[in-house]
Amino acid sequence: MKQKVSVTFEPLGLKVKAEVGKTIFDIARETGVAMRSECGGRGTCGKCKVLVSNSSAANKLTENERKLLAKKEVNLGFRLACLTKIQRNLVLTIPEESRITTRKIQLLGLEKRVEVKPNVRKEYLVLKKPTLQDAKPDFERITSALKSDLDVEHQVLQNLPEILREADWKITATVWGERTVIDVEDGNTSEKVYGLAIDVGTSKIVVYVVDLKTGKVLGMGAIENPQMMYGEDIVSRITYAAKDKKYLKILQLMVVNAVNEALNKACNEAQVKPKYVYEAIFVGNVVMHHLFLGIQPKYIALSPYTPVLGKPICTKTKDLGVKINPHGMICTLPVIGGFVGSDAVADALATGIYESDETSLLLDIGTNTEVFLGNKNRLLCCSCASGPAFEGVHIKHGVKAVDGAIEKVHIQPSSLKVKYETINDAPPVGICGTGIIDAVAELFKNKVIDTNGRFIMTIKNPKLKKVKGENCFVLATKKESGTRNEIVITQKDINEIQLAKAAIFTGCVILMNRMKLSVGDIDRVFIAGAFGTHLNPENTKILGLVPDVKVEKIKFVGNTAIIGAKMALVSTEMREKTKEIINKTVYVELAADISFANEFSKALFIPHKELDRFPSVKRFLRGKVDVAV
User: Which residue segment(s) compose the domain that 131 sits in?
Assistant: First the structure.
């Protein structure tokens, strides 16, 4: 019997066992991972590129790979899947160009109308030609026409004489921040003024192209964050960046290149040339913020967990390598502190919790979950180390939100027959975050697991079994599965979800205790992030992920981080509002709270060790009423 090793396919988060000596391409085909290959895996087309994390875990580079891969790609660790034979445990990333199926990334979120007042404007000017009687300098001729004393970019001045004269003094000036002329173009291009909203998350990147005259989104682009190969969580990336400046640079280049790929997608969809994009607003958690700017993030992970920069900053896009107008600017929104970044500020801006009379609980669920609690008078926030389990990581058959991912689960009482829905109705290849939450909640509702999250193995049902010494429940049979293997949820999977949900609920409880609020005092619960609008609100309560509020108070708002970034892009007034959010928000360091360990241990139970905290679940378990009440 041949030795087997572990192969992990990113960004799917799919881990399989495969025989030593098999090619990555064959393993991908056997497990249902669709990958481009015009030559059918014969090593001649070069379309099945993969990024291998450890070159020593595979055979040496072949001659065909040297011919088909660019030298830069080889240096980065790219291989051809059909020519790469595994020898040891291996983690690989399938770049978007090599994928046939793509992950469903939440692009949209709660939209709030704002008055369009952008930071960039363009003016078409017909200038008077200089004469002996009017020998005013070229640039002063422009500022006179604009009726404003403005600065100018040095490179603009270098090209200005030729542009003015070749254009017969009919030009368009681009003004940034009402203080600097950042571009001068031949003819009338005043209608072509665009900006970017950029949301860089731990696992995904989303970009909007926005018309700065109308405030409308014209195009969207999304891509996996390629830094995932250096760690699924932010602490792993901090550790990598802290080793040496060159590693920090690698992480920065990876995220900048990914942003460029996403913006190109968005521009293509919008039919907008990047040279007419003059400003970008960036949001992300504190670590992504630092890595994008090329700032060493290691001190964020060391007590007292201080970022290098909190205030908003604007810098030239060319200095970062973001490929829009070379004179364009990229601005960050402010960060709050600890691990709570500008993406959380954008969440608060988009939902309007900072200006509401109602008391709101806002959760942006992801690998690092941010929580806000409060109203217009006061806001508290914290960061919860929920980990990547809700992204399908560390789950036996967990996958990202790709075609074939099980995203909804219902288990019929008594028979325990499973009904599920998959993304794009494809044959199931694994289970993603929303499906995992449904599955655990359904198992609990049907008393297949107890409040400790343990399987009740005395139940006689073929769905409940032991595989290689581990208790598990079958969600999809081999016959149903797109991978030709059973898709199960294991005891370890349930424990991972318990850890993740306990971290989030503990954050909620500590903020509520700090503000001396009860569950009844909460008027609204906003759930933002990758789950979009796909979560079952009842199951979030059954699991103990959110406090036991009435279901009608729970609102799924999608990607509010990108919406908040867009609002700040189209309105300078909204940028001022972010300062208001910062001023009224107090950051709470959960690890420093004396009640954290106790609250966390109680929150590990389903829904909670103190069932009285979840009266609707308690009534449901007694069979009296629906959990929605």
Answer: 120-186
